[in-house]
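Trying the structure run again after the queue cleared.
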Amino acid sequence: MSHSAPPQDIHVLIIDDCPEALRPLSSLLHSAGMRLSLVTEPRQAVQRAQALRPDLILLDVHMAQMDGFAVCRLLQEAPLTRRIPVIFLTSASAVEQRLLGLTLGGVDYVIKPFAPEEVLARIRIHVQLAWRDHPADTAGGSVEANHQDPDQTVLHAAMRLIARQLEAPPPLSEIARQVGTHDKKLSAIFRRYLGMTVFSFIREERLRRSKQLLADSHLGIQDIADLVGFRSAANFATAFRERTGMTPSAFRSRAQGGPQRLSD
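Done. Tokens:
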């Protein structure tokens, strides 16, 4: 679709396992000339979105198979869907839920019950903004990205989730739930693509992040230990030396071009 297309050419994908309550809104969108597609199985949502490449997605939170936050995480990781604006349309009204939805990439968060006319106005606003900011990503534009293996999408979502909560990662089962799968499946995906367990990835990510912080900042060793999930500077220094053969201070000195110290 051209970014100069009129509003009635908007294609909206609705992801909701109980869409009956949205009939007044669907009728209004139809009468406004918009094209609607529906996904009631959230586990199929990312693949359908990649195939349809809608202009905007309306996404529920409370769904049986997979919650809307997990769906949004996966949409953000898939190359063909990461720039499609997502409006959460849900009864999940807690402040924490609204903040999470916006943090995960949602452009708007509308709480049920709502006025259909308001949702229509928000759809038009966010689609026009998307066309203005990313005209090449619209349905008629040229997109170089290809469909991504669903397991790779899950992998990238899990890796990002871990990186954002590195100081205290959730348990494996919770990580899996938040990316729309189960712990055995997630473990198998990590072994297949990375050749390591989820726990091993967390350990490697902590080492990578700590090296970055040591080289690029002047944070104290205790601060870095806190940021990457160690209980104390001493535990961090011991683990770091076991993995790299040098202390954090020696690594920092070498990385920043100063004299090396043999111990902390």
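The first strand starts at residue 11 and ends at 15. Worth checking whether this holds up in the mutant runs.
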